[in-house]
Amino acid sequence: MRNKWLGSLALVCVTFMQFSCGGCGGGAEDDIKFIPGDDMSSQDVNYNSDAMNEVIASFSSPVEMAALLKDSGVEFSPKYLTNPEKVKDYTSSFKKALGLGVLSADLGYLNVYSKTSMILDYLVSIRQLTDDLKLGQFFDFQSLKSLATSNDNIDSLLVMCVQSYQNMDEHLRNNQRSNLSALLVTGVWVESLYLITQVAKEQPKDTRFRETIGEQKGILNNLLPILKLFKETDKKFEELVQNLEELKDVLDVVKITVHIDENTEVRKDGVIEQNEYSVVEVSDEELQEIITTAEKIRNKIVN
Amino acid sequence: MKKIFILLVLAVLALASFTDKADAQCKQQLVYQCATQTEKAIYLRDFNTKLKRDTPDEETGMKWTVVLNKGTQYRFSLCAPDGFQDQVVLTLYDSEHPENSKPWGCTYDKVTKSDRKSFDFICNKTGMYYISIRFKPGEGGKKACAVGILSFVGKSKN
Q1: B155 Cβ contact list (under 8 Å, min separation 6)
Q2: How far is the C-alpha of A158 from the C-alpha of A231, rounded, in Å?
C-alpha cells in the first residue's frame, strides 16, 4: 500500500515537473505542433534543422527599417501602410502568416513614429491573425490596447509589440511550425523593403537609402533557400519563391565589394566602429527596377 | 496516509510553482527593465538565456545569429540579476572575428579586467553576426539568467 502511494506520488511529481519545465523555457507553451486539418502543418517537412532556424531567427526586427527612416528625417506617411481590413480576405494559414509579418512591420512603423491613434486598427487585425494561427497566447491585446489608448507610454508599447512578435516567431520555430515562422519573417522583410523603396521612389535624388536597398541582396540570398526548402512539400510556396527569385535576379546586378582598412577601426568610450566596410553600387536604372519589383511582390502579398 | 500524500503533493506543487515563477519573473523583469533602459536608442530585440555551470570548464550560455545593417549604430546592453552582473559577458563576433580571440565587441575587457554594461557598434557591412552571453571563465557554479538587448542608436554619420 505504502509503495503504491509512493509510486503515485512519484508519478504526480514527474508529471508536474515535465509540465513545469515546458513553461520555463520561454513563457507560455502549448502542445500545438500543427493546426489539425490545416494544410500548412509541416510535420512532413524535415525542417528540424538548427541551422535553418538560426537563419530565420537572425532576421531584422520589425521596427528596424522604420527606425532608420525616422532617424534619417523621413516624414511619416500612412500611404505606405497596408490596409488592416484586408486580413478578412486571408483564408489560408500561408496568407495569414505572411500577412502577420507585413502587419507587424507596419505596427513597428506606427510605433516608431508614435502614431498611437492609428495603432488600434492594426492591433485588432493582428489579434485576428494570431487567434487564427493559434498564437493568441503571445499577443496580449488588452494590455497593448490599453497602452495604445493611454498614449503616455509609447516606449513600453513598442517593447511589448516587438516582444510579442519575437515570442510568436520563437514559438513557431520551437513547435515544428518553422514554415509559418519563415513566412512571418518574409512578410516583415518584404514590407520593410517596401517601406524603404517607396521612400526612395518619392525622393529619387536622395541617395541615402540606396546602399541599404542594395544590401538586401545578401538578406534575400539567405532567405530564399529556406523558402525553397518548404516549396518541396507545399505548393503554396511556389508562387512566393518565383516572385522572390525575380527580385533576386534584379538584386543580383548590385555590386557589393568588401574592403578592410586596418587604420580606421575605432574603439573609444564604448563605441566600436567596424574597420571592414562594404561598397554598394546601384545605378538609377537598377534602383528603379528594384523599387518596381519590390512593390509588385508586396502588393501581391497584401491583396 | 492519504492526508500525508495530499500534503506532500501540495508541498511539491507549491515548491515547483514558486521555482517556475521565480524563473519566469527573472526573465520578464530583466527583459522589460533592460529594454526600457536604452535611453534614446530604440529597442529592436532581446536575447534571453539561463546560465548554469557545474564545473569551471563547462561551456555556458547561448549564441544567436543576428543580421546587422550597414550604416547603423547599434547598442548591445547586458542585464543580469543582482550579484551576477560582473560574472556574465556579452560578445559580438562573426566567422572571421572569433568569439574568444578577436571579437568585434565585448562587455568585458580582458586587459583592464573591467565590465561595461553596454557598447555601441557602428556597422559598416551588412551581414550575419553572432551574439553570445556566457559566464566569464572561472565564474559560475550557480544558476543565473541574463538578457542582452539590441537597440538602434541611429544612422551612422559616415
Answers
A1: A68, A71, A72, A208, B71, B72, B73
A2: 34
Compute the average pLDDT of residues B99-117.
Answer: 89
Residues of chain B found within 8 Å of residue A16, distances taken between Cβ atoms: 12-13, 16
Cβ atoms A256, A218 nearer than 8 A: yes
Cell numbers at residue B65, please? 545569429
Instruction: For chain A, say whether B70 makes contact (Cβ under 8 Å).
Output: yes
Query: If we measure between CA atoms, which residue out of B11, B21, B18 comes closest to residue A24?
Result: B21
Average pLDDT over chain B reads: 80
- Cα distance between residue A140 and residue A123, in whole Å: 10
- Please report residues of B whose CB lies closer than 8 A to that of A276: 124-125
| Average pLDDT value for residue range A149-160 | 83
Residue B106: pLDDT band with limits 50, 70, 90: very high
Torsion of CA A6, A8, A11, A12, to 10 degrees: -110
At A239, phi and psi to the nearest 5? -65, -40
ipTM over 0.90: no
Q: What is the β-pairing status of strands A255-260 and B72-79?
A: unpaired
Question: Which of A52-61, A160-169, B10-19 has the least mean pLDDT?
Answer: B10-19
B12 touches chain A (CB under 8 A): yes
pLDDT for position A25 = 27
Q: Which residue has the cell 503533493?
A: B9
Residues A223, A185: contact at Cβ < 8 Å?
Answer: yes
Q: pLDDT by residue (tens digit) across A186-197?
A: 999 999 999 999
Do residues B154 and B73 touch, judged by C-beta distance below 8 A?
yes
> Mutual orientation of helices A178-202 and A236-251 as an angle, nearest 10°?
40
Q: A210, A222, A261, A276: best mutation site toward chain B, by most B Cβ within 10 Å?
A: A276
- Cell numbers representing residue A74 in the block: 523621413
Q: Which residues contact B2 (CB under 8 A, 6 or more apart)?
A: A5
- DSSP E strand boundaries for B6-124: 42-52, 62-68, 72-79, 88-93, 105-106, 108-109, 114-115, 118-123
Name the strand (E) or helix (H) holding B109. strand B108-109
pTM assigned to the model: 0.81
Asked if residue A9 has pLDDT above 50, the reply is: no
> A158 to chain B: nearest residue by CA?
B43
The values of phi and psi at residue A206, to 5°, are: -85, 110
| Lowest mean per-residue pLDDT among A163-167, A202-206, A255-259 | A202-206
* pLDDT tops 50 at residue B16: no
Q: Report which residue type is found at B66.
A: V
Measure the CA–CA gap between A272 and A269, rounded to whole angstroms.
Answer: 8
Q: Residue A257: beta bridge partners?
A: A279
The secondary element (H helix, E strand) that includes residue A40 is none
